[in-house]
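Example 351, ligand magnesium ion.
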Amino acid sequence: AMMLGIESSCDETACAVLDGEGRVRAEIVASQIADHAPFGGVVPEIAARAHLAALAPMVRAALAEAGIAARDLSGIAATVGPGLIGGLIVGAGFAKGMALATGAAFYAINHLEAHALTARLPGIAARAPDFPYLLLLVSGGHTALIAVEAVGRYRRLGTTLDDAAGEVFDKVAKLLGLGYPGGPALEALAAEGDPARFTLPRPLLGRAGCDFSFSGLKTAVAQIVSRLPPGSLPRGMAADIAASFQAAVVEAMADRLSHALAMMPDATCVVVAGGVASNRAIRGRLEATATAGGLTLIAPPLRLCTDNATMVAWAAIERRRAGYSSDDLAAHCRPRWPLDGAVQSLIAGKA
Ligand code: ATP
Ligand code: MG
Ligand code: FE
């Protein structure tokens, strides 16, 4: 029972083939970073066209890598939201066409649900995490703490009130003159700097609940930079700003996580997902916070934390196993699709 997964919601085109047990038979990701870098961010129109150009040869390569033909697929899963609508339509349309041609079942997958279930993929943890667990999703587009109660049942405990965590890393990196995407470059620069040099705000620290806010922090960094004569940011000072910024984010995240743990006393473990979770300072502090709460932190390998299609195929396998039916070929794409309550069918009229 082979499952093909397709991901095209943002700036990664990806496809993967998993067997019925969730073992990865093929996994391919093509990043569009180079296409978007000249613009300093993802350009939706460019993204959609790049997905269209990449997808067919990539699916052919993935089937070859898995050693199967299209007719051997029992299911075809595609991300249908949330994300950039052009890319979603390219990926979903491709998957629907293939399903129509091969007779395979079509699965319309919520990208956030795929991130949420990745930690249960065989081989990630010594034992697949049991429900309910606490998910911290920190990516370029999302920042949320979610109670994962069962396949298809999610409760959002907290979310960002303004920017996503990765987005603020990218914006601060831009202020410091680093390239796009800024997160990894900012982490490297922070390693050279003094985190105590600048006192930056810790938005919402100690406040009730577990929402996030990053815009005040971003503004504070912008003010420091704007007080300097243009084009004269010495590297040492940039490093100190980066280190001070990262320290503020680390502290805010640990605080929000400990509040979420208090809101979810039955959590079996903490799972992180999203590109920001690859930051070592953040990951280390989250680990310490989870341990202090008596729980282990499960962090999938980076290739599965960032956008990928293995998680899309796996979410379809989980849904099939949990007894959900496959989706109608009339399923819609949804730019916004919050992961709250039951993740339902997207058939016209029911969405
Ligand atoms: P989505 O939000 O739709 O899941 P995305 O492509 O925006 O997709 P990811 O691919 O999960 O998100 O992660 C990319 C983000 O993670 C970028 O904002 C990037 O700057 C940030 N990031 C990557 N590495 C690091 C790091 N070491 N430290 C901080 N941020 C990082
Ligand atoms: Mg990405
Ligand atoms: Fe993602």
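Summary: The first helix runs from residue 33 to 36.
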